[in-house]
Amino acid sequence: MKPHSLRYTLIFAALAVLTLLGGGIWFLSGHSPAVWTAYAPKEAKSPADLPQQQIVQSALPEITPPPVSEALSQRVVEYHMDVQLLADTETLTASETMTWTHPGKKPVQELYFHLYPNAFASGNTTFMKESGGTLRGDSMPAGGYGSLTLTDLRTSEGVSLMQRTQYVQPDDGNTNDKTLLKVHLPQPVNGGESVTLKLQFEVKLPKIFARMGTADNFVMAGQWFPKLSVYEPAGTRGVKEEGWNLHQYHGTSEFYSDFGIYNVTISVPSDYKVAATGFPVKNARLVQDRKIYQFYADDVHDFAWAASPDFVVAEKAFSAPQVPGVKIKLYLDPLHKDLQERYFQAAEAALTAFSKWYGPYPYSTLSIVVPPESGNGAGGMEYPTLITAFGAAEATPSTSLERTVIHEIGHQYFYGMVASNEFEEAWLDESFTSYAEDRLMEQEYGVATSLPLQSSLVSSSQPLNLETWKYSGDDAYTRNVYIRGKLVLRDIERLAGTKNMDAILAAYVRKYRFKHPSTADFQKIVEKVTKQSWQTYFDQYVYSGGAPDFAVDDIRLTAKRGSGDGAGIQYDAVVKVSNQGSHYGDVPVKFTFSDGYTVQQYWNGEGKTTSFELSYKAPLVSAEIDPEHSILLESKHLNNFRMAELEHSTLSRWTLSATTLLETLLGTLVW
């Protein structure tokens, strides 16, 4: 997800330029076409031989599943869903048949479902209390509450489980939060066995401010259905004991789920157009005053859809060396109907580059939804094979249009295929995607990111593998997960070399494609490619909130007359520098003398302090640590620069030069 707040935060970050100057800056230095085979899904095992009760029929007819392709993932879950949009009441009514195949070994007698729409049920839910009803600059409209009501839950034999359910709150104990539901089964499910449950539910859609809901006649159905939690076998993400990974929906958290198969029928008013995860099994058909769509997707871990009568739809077939064939579909707000080519070009650039860098895009479709301005809270979000751009607020947007599309398509890899736990290790999605986004924006559009400027925004460094709700506020979450994590990756690139970094990321994606990796898994790849230990580095900058903090503490000058006839004055200087933060080696220090001569030396970073001794024919004017701000993990630059005490006339000339530099530099800050 692209953090909307960064767009505004970076404007204020221009103030950091003055800090940098005060610190001595002298210059701005599914699937591709394949052989389809008939495949019969493994028959789900009933949880018990129990007395038969009356079976409640689904509200909509059962779906005949289409054939499926060769599996790319473990396909732990399988969903068959029918959903109807009742536009007048902004309600979804749906039935769901869910089959789960136990991936572990120990018997399991409880299943856990995420009921994400319940985050918007009242002002007392965990999400609303933590977010304050605001996300990425968008606030909940008056009367905007919504929720999910489970109306029926049964085994495949028709045994009701409604009295076997319980809302749980493992993170904060907030009894007003109903985003996680435990279901106690009649009998255990053993490892390798399957269980099938049938659910019926209704969703009162909230007003859009946080990803899902309605805005006028636009609907974004993201995280809209009861979705099974992830059961992690031992070894997954380094866990020692197998079990459920359970978290509520928090103000800063996103999602985590298992790969599987989705077969979904969507019924909407006849004038509505639908965009969805996966591909249409057949053309939409009209039944009285309704339009019926059917979509299918496999090897994905979520299913989202959007609908509006106002969509301007465009399609384009695209292929590239690592992209055998993808149909790109645009669902544009009318304000952006003339911007089709910009969206297509950004999508093609992203698919081409990311498939080259991180492996082939494996799906046959990619849908881009552009919400109306009133639905901007649903914008800038990723779902498997479907992304949302920001809401259409202007007819000729800046390259933020391309940047958002590229960022969200990047999530098809870091989140989509490399499906890490966004509750606990969000940086594995957002930081990695932001890293790829920056690289492609510069390559394709010539738009370079001011990394030192972004570094100055990270005022509070915190561990990157922190559970999202444990950051000290949403601002700290954003600046660490989106910015600092990206800077750590850039720093690894600086230390290991660009060629090695390319190999690291390619190997990481290749190994953990359609799996659930952890930060430790990424560290192992870094060490394997570079053939050296990175434990100290990860301990300082990833597993903790380490940051270097360099300072020029003191400059002492002495003058003496040289020996011999005609010898001039010799100036000696002793410069004391320190690092009050985390260890960092190979630190450049620049020394400037009054006649304009400069010299750069390096500190190996050992110890907290060191001194440099210099002798020259002209007095030392200043010392500056990391003059080009290449050490991106330092955010405090004010104390990196120090001027020596000079005679008044020399100091005046130096101040005039610095003033001229300041005026020149500020003249280049065109945003």
From TrEMBL:
Active site positions: 408, 482
Keywords, in A-Z order: Metal-binding, Zinc
Chain residues that bind Zn(2+): 407, 411, 430
SUPFAM superfamilies: Metalloproteases ('zincins'), catalytic domain (SSF55486)
Record has DNA damage as a keyword: no
Keyword flag Plastid: no
Any GO MF annotation of the entry: metallopeptidase activity
Protein name: EnpEP protein
